[in-house]
Write a structure and sequence with these properties.
The complex is a heterodimer. Chain A is 74% helix and 3% strand. By secondary structure, chain A is mainly alpha-helical. In chain B, helix 3 runs parallel beside helix 13 and helix 11 packs across helix 19. Chain B has 24 helices and seven strands. Chain B starts with a helix and ends in a 15-residue tail after the last helix. In chain B, strand 3 and strand 4 form a beta hairpin. Classes of the chains: A mainly alpha, B mainly alpha. At the A-B interface, helix 1, helix 2 and helix 4 of A face helix 5, helix 11, helix 13 and helix 24 of B.
């Protein structure tokens, strides 16, 4: 993909202040019915994202003690000279937390960008 | 090589740390003029500085000393505390960070005022902010007392008084503007102070690879004498080489061996001598052999280990959201996007830090097992460098650790004091800079008598109780306030009072000395020591049910408030609130 022509870009010297831009923005800002529905949609999307990721983390974390008590042999085995239960709890949990946090930041910002695009889009 | 040289070195290092803290504070606060400077550093702190400052503030005595102590004592299950302390910020990132910042509030009570417009709710929230911060200051002050007592032999009251004096001076001088710099500096100081000794001990550990998970209790390398200061019940697995002078099982003895394996009571003032190679007795309730220690699900003393784990997870995962001194730092971000990035960076910084207390806890079992006898394992981090590494290197490392410990008390206490002062100054007094200073003085002195009177638990556990109170009060208030339009002021007050009453009573009972472990199969003791499993759902349910019952009182402007909290700043909905405005 490195060779060939670069993708085409549209160059705009100034945003055309179309009537549509003002209208959607104002609808959100003035809390008309349409504007409120848009805000509700954004809030629901962001909450859904947060809840889904929280559920993933809780499942992963709760499975550690539960798995340990169901398969004690697994928890007692060693990897790289460290017991698996220690490896999981003292080391591997932390990258999981950070990774999920990072994913959330990316998706939440994506959601906000999409929202702004909907609000500001031209007809 | 003598004790006095080492004490002088430690004392010098502590004084340098204290002076550096005040100096950095004066530098950072030199331009602090307006109330906005004092409360939210005029909202110009970028994610990197802010994340370091939040971590510096958040890593308290409980993390610096307490985590290692718990790991040394209880092994695998104690690892849930650092996990929870870190995961709390993931919860904060997912549910609170950006909307809270976008609300434009400057304290937690101000947020409730913004969201529900009720003066009564604002006052109730202010009371909870003050109570949580004061409760959290108590273990910080106690930790300072313990540190100075162990390292320099000073009376226990000096540490709390010294820490109170330093933080009051700093907060009165420059408020949030000043402590942002102090706390960012202290994160890196703390990381160095625990990282360098931990890596040195790791090198030592790798060089001779002693066994950790063996079937025996930990053993001492040289003759060791332990003074027992309060009555303690110990589990003795191998009595060989252990002699006792003082009170054993209620009888007065002199240089007597322990007659048999099993549980024995040592009276206050008893001296216990361990011959080289003798197995260390362990305070009753903690795992004694290496096999038990390294395995999972033994709990943290007391019955019902799985319940304890669940309660710790609930309290710490949700508690960070409800800590006023953490939230107040999110108001200093320039916008909601920066607030999210700050929370993410905090997770990274905390993950890096907690590697080291965990390592220190593991090594404590090898190098200072005698601490397990009296149960004062919080001292492990402080005593280990000198015990494990001979000569000046060990003394230098010990001084470094002492500096980190004092930084831990100062950073967390300053943050808590800013929160108390911010809440009192704007909600009780009139919100001027002079009021902020008066409030800081009151807030700093208030916890002193409590710190001197309360019984000492392990520091991490003590802090865990404060997390439970925060998770049962401010956490539901914020989460429902941010995501649920149906919340009403009356519902919020009912939930706060219900969650606060249950978790607060449990915390008070445990701090006052606890409930007998034998009562009703140990459940009352477990519930009082770890109340979050009950009190958090109770607070959420009360808040929701009471709000449904008073649904006529939903404020009319709720839709506009939700738009402000959740829309990106670019849409121009956000408004910064200022005190008195």
């Amino acid at each position: 993909m490195t060779s060939g022509r670069p993708p085409r870009e549209r160059v705009v010297l100034a945003h055309r202040r179309g009537a549509r831009i003002v209208r959607t923005r104002v609808e959100v800002q003035e809390q008309t019915e349409v504007g409120d529905a848009l805000v509700r949609g954004l809030v629901r999307a962001q909450l859904g994202l947060a809840l889904r990721l929280a559920a993933v983390v809780m499942c992963a974390i709760v499975s550690i003690p539960v798995g340990g008590s169901l398969f004690p042999a697994l928890a007692a085995s060693s990897m790289f000279g460290i017991r698996v239960n220690w490896l999981l709890l003292a080391v591997l949990v932390y990258p999981l937390l950070y990774g999920v946090g990072r994913l959330y930041v990316r998706l939440a910002e994506q959601g906000e960008r999409d929202f702004i695009r909907v609000v500001d889009e031209e007809p | 090589m003598t004790g006095s040289v080492s004490a002088a070195l430690t004392a010098g290092a502590l004084i340098v740390a204290a002076v550096a803290t005040v100096a950095v504070g004066v530098y950072g606060g030199r331009r602090a003029r307006t109330t906005s400077d004092f409360l939210v550093a005029s909202r110009i702190v970028g994610p990197r500085w802010n994340a370091a400052a939040i971590s510096g503030e958040y890593l308290s005595a409980a993390s610096f000393l307490g985590v290692a102590g718990l790991v040394a004592k209880y092994g695998t299950d104690a690892l849930w505390y650092p996990i929870g302390f870190t995961a709390g910020f993931l919860g904060l990132l997912l549910f609170v960070a950006a909307p809270l910042r976008r609300s434009g509030a400057y304290t937690v009570p101000d947020f409730t005022d913004f969201r529900l417009g009720s003066a009564r709710l604002r006052t109730v929230t202010m009371l909870f902010v003050v109570v949580i911060c004061v409760l959290y200051l108590v273990p910080q002050y106690q930790g300072a007392g313990l540190t100075l007592n162990i390292l320099l032999g000073l009376p226990v009251w000096i540490g709390p008084v010294a820490v109170a004096a330093i933080i009051i001076a700093n907060v009165v001088g420059g408020g949030m503007r000043s402590i942002t710099f102090v706390q960012a500096f202290q994160y890196w100081l703390k990381l160095t102070a625990i990282g360098v000794p931990a890596i040195a001990l790791l090198a030592l550990f790798v060089a001779d690879r002693p066994s950790l998970g063996g079937p025996l209790p930990p053993t001492v390398g040289q003759q060791t004498t332990v003074a027992v200061k309060t009555d303690v019940v110990v589990q003795v697995d191998a009595p060989t080489g252990v002699t006792i002078t003082g009170t054993l099982d209620g009888r007065s003895v002199h240089d007597a061996p322990i007659p048999s394996a099993g549980e024995h009571t040592l009276g206050a003032g008893t001296a216990l001598t361990l011959a080289p190679g003798a197995a260390t007795p362990v305070v009753a309730g903690a795992p004694s052999t290496g096999t038990e220690w390294i395995g999972s699900s033994g709990g943290l003393g007391g019955d019902h280990p799985l319940y304890q784990l669940l309660a710790i997870i609930v309290a710490t995962f949700l508690g960070a959201m409800g800590l006023p001194h953490v939230q107040v730092r999110f108001y200093t971000n320039p916008d909601g996007r920066a607030a999210r990035r700050t929370a993410l960076a905090v997770i990274a910084l905390l993950s890096l830090f907690y590697v080291f207390p965990t390592l220190m806890g593991v090594f404590a079992r090898l190098y200072v097992p005698q601490l397990l006898i009296t149960g004062t394992a919080d001292a492990a981090v402080l005593l280990m460098p000198r015990a494990a590494i001979a000569g000046p290197a060990g003394q230098l490392l010990a001084a470094l650790v002492a500096v980190g410990a004092i930084a831990a008390f100062l950073a967390t206490s300053s943050g808590l004091l800013v929160s108390i002062a911010g809440a009192l100054a704007t909600d009780v007094l009139r919100g001027r800079v002079r009021d902020f200073r008066t409030a800081a003085l009151i807030g700093g002195v208030l916890p002193l008598p409590l710190a001197l009177a309360a019984s000492t638990l392990e520091l991490s556990r003590n802090v865990g109780l404060v997390f439970a109170v925060a998770a049962s009060t401010l956490c539901p208030l914020l989460v429902l306030g941010i995501w649920w339009r149906g919340l009403t002021a009356a519902g919020a007050i009912c939930g706060l009072v219900a969650g606060g009453a249950v978790s607060g009573t449990a915390a008070a009972l445990t701090l006052a000395g606890g409930i007998g472990a034998d009562l009703l199969g140990g459940w009352p003791a477990a519930l009082a020591g770890y109340p979050a499993v009950v009190s958090v759902p109770l607070a959420f349910v009360t808040m929701i049910v009471a709000s449904r019952l008073t649904r006529g009182a939903i404020p009319p402007g709720t839709a506009r408030i939700f738009a402000r909290m959740h829309l990106p700043e670019r849409l121009g909905m956000s408004v910064e609130r200022v005190p008195g405005g």
